């Protein structure tokens, strides 16, 4: 009978049972991934062969699908199910068929929450999962984490836990729990007590050093350490807390304060270094104070006007600067500027906006005075007696019979530059520097610029006390006297500081502001370097050749303004 019925022949009436073979309705199945799903149905005995289909396609027995039967109970087992096994199945007996839906059950019983934890604490990631689920995997940024000293995986009933011991900043990130094909994300945010870290400090001895940091509100109070020893408050070590700012102020630092410091807030700490730069012992207490006072008082305003002269090559920039500064145009032969020439021979009076041209600037003055000091010690004499000393015969010879030229600086302050002032040839200086008696005209020119233009031949006896002489010296004499030179310079140091200060005060009282005229080279080669010097605070003078068609110039300048010299 069974065989007859089983001898299927579509359309043949004798093969088709006329009564419903299903003894009861099959149920939809919910199954957890990784498990076996068993689709069952109760069928009458003596029925034609039973077919199992998925999405209307017949499934045959194999490793994955097992078809079995026990009395009236028919079973279709799907082994080790995955997400792809879910779908509409049906059991078909002749013309009768019933649907069974297989659902892969989400193993997660609840949604997961992101975790916030403070650095140093243990972070516990948890999730509730169905019982009877395939193995649970914990991952960070897509990579599986296995149990070790840092990570502890545990479970209690449906509650699964992943503990991260002693968290640090690097533990923060995207974690996920994976069960079969299902996974859920948990974001771990490690909250640091420190909102702003303290940073390393380098300062000069005598300055105050202040370490500061900002922490989360309600953080525990901070402790400060130096080289692992807790710092106790004193008049030199002041600790303070303002809102969530912690501060350690070390007053009047000494070189021995250098070292590693640490601030600890609860379990968290930050390390930082303090480096104290020592002031040379040779500098006296007064000088130190003179140096430290402005540092402590905050800032010193430098008033300086920068005028930048720009424009194409050979349009007359340098000529314009020379004219503005009353420089001897006869001497300027239209030689191209290399790079940038900075002319500091000009000051601006704030009271009436008057330009004062031709002042000797402080820096050059200081250099001259140092050279003066060096020269005096070389000769083993002081400036007053110097002129009365006879010039040694051999020295005279070196000058080809000329007297050594004594050069006097012009009086600083009031005298404006006179273009007819005689500019001496500093032949002796050149020899001093190059240790040779042959002097090229180029050297002469360079020395003139180095030493400042405001020099004239010494011919006024009233100014002898201030005079200095630069004369040729054989090399061996120079080396013997190096220590004396250093000594002389140190002696002069105090005087120089006083001079510079007086000069500054004088300028301030007269309302004078230093002004520098920056003459840029116009050749294209220099364009790249010019960008460095362009600043919105400078005053620009664009020079153009009016012989060129103005439209073309305008176009050119607009295009190239950023790269114009
Ligand atoms: N005709 C005329 N020539 C000038 C004028 N200004 C400068 N020059 C000449 O143009 C040439 C280039 O001048 P210079 O100042 O070196 O140009 P810079 O390259 O822009 O600095 C020199 O030979 C100057 O003598 C001017 O106003 N008129
Ligand atoms: Mg030029």
List low-pLDDT spans: 1-14, 381-476, 561-565
Question: Span between N and C termini?
Answer: 109 Å
**Count, helices:** 12
Q: Would you tell me the overall average pLDDT?
A: 74
**What is the total domain count?**
5
Assign an overall shape. elongated
Largest sheet composition = 5 strands, mixed
- What is the number of strand segments? 33
Instruction: Tell me the β content.
Output: 25-35%
Q: What radius of gyration results from the CA coordinates?
A: 47 Å
Strand adjacency order, main sheet: 1-8-7-3-4
- Assembly state (oligomeric): single chain
Percentage of residues in helical conformation: 10-25%
Structural class label: alpha+beta
| Ions, cofactors and other bound molecules | guanosine-5'-diphosphate, magnesium ion
Protein name: Ig-like domain-containing protein
Keywords: Cytoplasm, Disulfide bond, Phosphoprotein
Subcellular location: Cytoplasm
InterPro entries: Ig-like_dom, Ig-like_dom_sf, Ig-like_fold, Ig_I-set, Ig_sub, Ig_sub2, Obscurin/Obscurin-like_Reg, P-loop_NTPase
Ordered list of secondary-structure elements with their pairings:
Elements: H1 2-6, E1 29-32, E2 37-42, E3 50-54, E4 57-58, E5 65-70, E6 73-78, E7 87-93, E8 96-105, E9 115-118, E10 123-128, E11 136-140, E12 143-144, E13 151-156, E14 159-164, E15 173-179, E16 182-191, E17 194-196, E18 201-204, E19 209-215, E20 222-226, E21 229-230, E22 237-242, E23 245-250, E24 259-265, E25 268-277, H2 285-296, E26 304-311, H3 317-324, E27 340-349, E28 355-357, H4 362-379, H5 383-386, H6 393-398, E29 406-409, H7 427-434, H8 441-451, E30 455-457, E31 468-469, H9 475-480, H10 482-509, E32 512-520, H11 527-530, E33 539-543, H12 550-560
Parallel strand pairs: 1-8, 9-16, 18-25, 26-32, 26-33
Antiparallel strand pairs: 2-6, 3-4, 3-7, 5-6, 7-8, 10-14, 11-12, 11-15, 13-14, 15-16, 17-19, 19-23, 20-21, 20-24, 22-23, 24-25, 27-28, 27-32, 29-30, 29-31
Helix pairs in contact: 4-10
The structure holds guanosine-5'-diphosphate and magnesium ion.
